[in-house]
Write a sequence for this structure.
């Protein structure tokens, strides 16, 4: 039993699932609907985790061939043959996806289900199947998956479209390229070996670093929109300034030195940036 769990857990990319689910919870908290029930939070977490895990399992299933080429992914359950039946991840993905949508419809509302459906669709079909092997735009369009999670969280409080969750979803959208292109610089040779047209593979590390900086400037500007429209106060604004400056400094360091070490630091800085920014949303709303 323990061996089976150990073999199947990597299918779900739990770190990514946790980030997506945290984003959904932030969206829930940001929706102006009064009291937040424990049950709505619990069902949102469950449905979001299931939808994200479903898309991740499908990604493992579909990408088995390229995962077997790249050193960092060769130990995954499919290329390493820890899972003996190649159809099992696909079956698991379908079951989790259906369960997520049913929970959303029954326990929350149809808009949550719609946003989770679109998020899983973007990651599994548009990113994994269509764009990942064809275009450098893959990660830009794929970033919509995280944005839909924020919108799903907002919809769990009210089906009507609320501006603050929308603004946060925009920030989430612009965060993804700066985050992932840094990761792609670190693993450029492996992506090239697998024939995946990530931006560093096509234009090199130096130009990619400039694109990251440009994208991060847009990201930081977008992060001030909740303050500009009066939805969040001083705690959020100060945090957005500080973590924005921190992330931009890291980006500038990457332009000066595109080594894997600095790219990895920029990648980790992106995680700090988003985590601190979304935590500031929660605190600002809690004390406001």
């Amino acid at each position: 039993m323990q061996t089976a769990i150990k073999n199947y857990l990597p299918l779900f990319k739990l770190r990514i699932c946790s980030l997506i689910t945290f984003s959904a919870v932030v969206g829930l908290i940001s929706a102006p609907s009064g009291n937040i029930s424990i049950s709505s939070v619990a069902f949102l977490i469950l449905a979001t985790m299931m939808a994200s895990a479903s898309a991740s399992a499908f990604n493992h299933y579909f990408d088995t061939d390229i995962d077997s080429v790249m050193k960092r992914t060769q130990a995954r359950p499919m290329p390493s043959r820890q899972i003996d039946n190649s159809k099992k991840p696909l079956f698991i993905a379908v079951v989790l996806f259906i369960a997520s949508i049913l929970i959303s419809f029954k326990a929350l509302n149809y808009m949550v289900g719609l946003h989770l459906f679109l998020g899983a669709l973007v990651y599994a079909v548009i990113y994994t199947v269509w764009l990942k092997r064809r275009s450098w735009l893959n990660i830009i369009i794929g970033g919509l998956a995280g944005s839909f999670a924020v919108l799903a969280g907002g919809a769990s409080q009210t089906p009507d479209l609320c501006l603050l969750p929308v603004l946060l979803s925009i920030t989430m959208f612009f965060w993804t390229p700066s985050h992932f292109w840094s990761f792609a610089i670190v693993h450029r040779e492996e992506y090239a070996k697998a024939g995946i047209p990530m931006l560093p593979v096509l234009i090199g590390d130096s130009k990619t670093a400039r694109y990251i900086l440009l994208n991060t400037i847009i990201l930081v500007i977008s992060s001030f929109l909740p303050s500009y429209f009066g939805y969040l106060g001083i705690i959020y604004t100060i945090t957005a300034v500080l973590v924005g400056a921190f992330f931009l400094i890291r980006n500038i360091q990457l332009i000066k030195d595109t080594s894997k070490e600095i790219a990895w630091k920029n990648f980790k800085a992106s995680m700090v940036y988003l985590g601190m920014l979304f935590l500031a949303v929660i605190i600002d709303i809690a004390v406001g």
